[in-house]
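Two proteins follow. First one:
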Amino acid sequence: MPSAAEATFVPEPPLPDDASAAGLDAEVRRDLRGLQKETAETVARHLVAAGSLVDEDPELALQHARYARRRAARIAVVREAAGIAAYHAGEWTEALGELRAARRMGGGPGHLPVMADIERALGRPERALELARGPEAAELGQAERIELAIVAAGARRDLGELDAAVVGLQIPELDAAHRDPWSARLFYAYADNLHAAGRESDALQWFVHATDADEHGETDAAARIAELTGEPLDEDDVTFGEELPADEAPAQPEDTAEPDEPTEPGEPTEPAEPDEPEDSAEPEPADEHERTDRAPEPGA
């Protein structure tokens, strides 16, 4: 094999048995129709494998996405998938190159928040803000626009502009009464920036709002509340304000000793001293806590 070809050769990773082309979005399958039938089937199965592995094994997901790219490099959706897989694997330069290529092919502005976040990861917050202010940002849907605002606030923090980061998230969607798909992340990002700006009381209130809105465990808002209040985090990871069903509540031991005086109904008993929470390891990113201003995973 010539040295140039050897340098760009991508071996085909084994496909999982459940990686079926039928699991690919219908619109994506239509984009693959320009390929030969057998090639389209192979590319589709590798894209499905990449999507299913991106959370649990991003490195292996990237191998599948790279192979699909080698077989169908001229299709925008394939380049998008390769870029997203590289993003989750921490291959920032590769991810940015693939997403830029997808945009040139007409892939649209949907991954603009991811690209801005990559610029941050590469130490270029100014470029992240340029993307957030660019004309393509106006073409984003509501969810993507909010994610871009969260990333832009993170870029402001990278530049030391803490108050500007807070103001940048004061958008109409920042309403504690709302329960939208982005509410938990938006509330958390706002609380996190308030805390960075030294406004601990306001930050605590918005961490509470984030916890209330976080139905799927997207954030560590409960841990942040425990940190700010000095209260231990429940080891069972019970959401603040959530009552356990009667059949799941821990059984209370019976007191066999006869009390000197009868206890009045409803009289509280003194709780036992809780164990001290274990210190958690410091996260890798420069921010004090896990970056929730990072763009979310793409939809399948």
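Second one, unrelated to the first:
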Amino acid sequence: MNINTISFDFIKKQAEKKQSNIRIILVCPDDSLLNAAELAKKNNIAQFIVIDTKKNKLRDTIIAENYEEVMRKVASLILKGEADTMAKGLINTSIFLKEIIHSKISNQLLTHTSIVELKDSKKIFIISDGTVIPNPTLEQKVTIIENSIKCANIMGIETPKIALLSANELILRGIESGYDCAILSKMAERGQINKKKIVLDGPMSLDTAVSEEAANNKKLSFAFKPPADILITPNLENGAFLIKAAVYMGGAKVAGLLWGASYPIILTSRADSEEAKYISICLCSLAKSKIQ
């Protein structure tokens, strides 16, 4: 399936149709996450358990003394098979990630994908990693790419087009990301990144990665015709800026998933909308359907 036919509405309909009923722990949820969970439960997309440091008005809550104990209880339920995954609420992100890493929930490097839907065109981009790894090594970038491909696959994109972003399409002295992009492109060409079929190129600047017109104007050709499906940023700062610019300056919508456990973990910003959190739940549900 081509990503141009995929939108957040399509993802909702697919999750509501498949009804995987994935079991999700809501970790210190705010009202928007609770409301998204209520809608998902109503549509048989997911079931929920709440763990918090205080009683919740809307449902029964497992109480813990502090955030660290909250996460220990979360890990215990998942490891015992009483839940599949979790969704971050108001808990501090650093505590949330630290406890996941220290538990046995995570079985590989944790990476994050932001799924961004543009306002007018409804075009979707998967952007990684703007949340977890500040300055990824070459080896870590391979995992970032592989997890981004998993995200594309659960959305129905079997052969995603992947752009490795840098400041310029040329490899220039002083811009280290360009060297990483070139090495990763050659690794992908030789089948060292993912066993499934992928189309990857880089370095690519943002304009040529998302616009065929920009690439044509610069008289550049790549391994695929823009726009890309997946945008791999040089580091966390670049990724975070790109995602937040799309949302707050371009009116885009965004969902977020953390990879590295048996099922993706819902990790969205506290400022994200109820819809963003509902879409993230839907994506988790689709992941369970695909794994099953």
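SUMMARY FIELD: The chain has a mean pLDDT of 93. The chain has two domains: 1-105+274-286, 108-261.
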